[in-house]
């Protein structure tokens, strides 16, 4: 399966070791699954994981490790289509990446915006728990 992981799920993976989001991330980078990332998605990962508000919950080292795992394992895909279909325009980057990379699944913890769009153009949008059932 080709997988897109949104920043909300990546943060959840970083905040709690051996959590469902971390397990979903590790499954997404393990063959036959393939994680894909674009420059715009990577930039958001970096920005969100560096926020000081997470310092009291988890070390920057742990957040950097999760980021490194995701970025080093991911295949680069750059969207060619501009997508404007999500109620939160900041999440359109995940839809554009999924479309460009012919993703099978978007893993998200964003109930209000991305998860409510399931399925989108035949692409499953699932929580980390639900994604573990199909990956």
Structural account:
The protein has one domain (2-134): 5'-nuclease (Rossmann fold, 3-Layer(aba) Sandwich). The chain has a five-stranded parallel sheet with strand order 3-2-1-4-5, sandwiched between helices. It has 135 residues and is of the alpha/beta class. It is globular, with a radius of gyration of 14 Å. It has six helices and five strands. The N and C termini lie close together (7 Å). The longest helix has 14 residues, at 60-73. It has helices at residues 7-15, 20-28, 39-49, 60-73, 92-100, 128-134; strands at residues 2-5, 34-37, 75-76, 105-107, 124-126.
Please outline what is shown here.
The chain has 135 residues and is an alpha/beta fold.
List keywords for this structure.
6 helices; 5-stranded parallel sheet; 135 residues; alpha/beta; globular; Rossmann fold
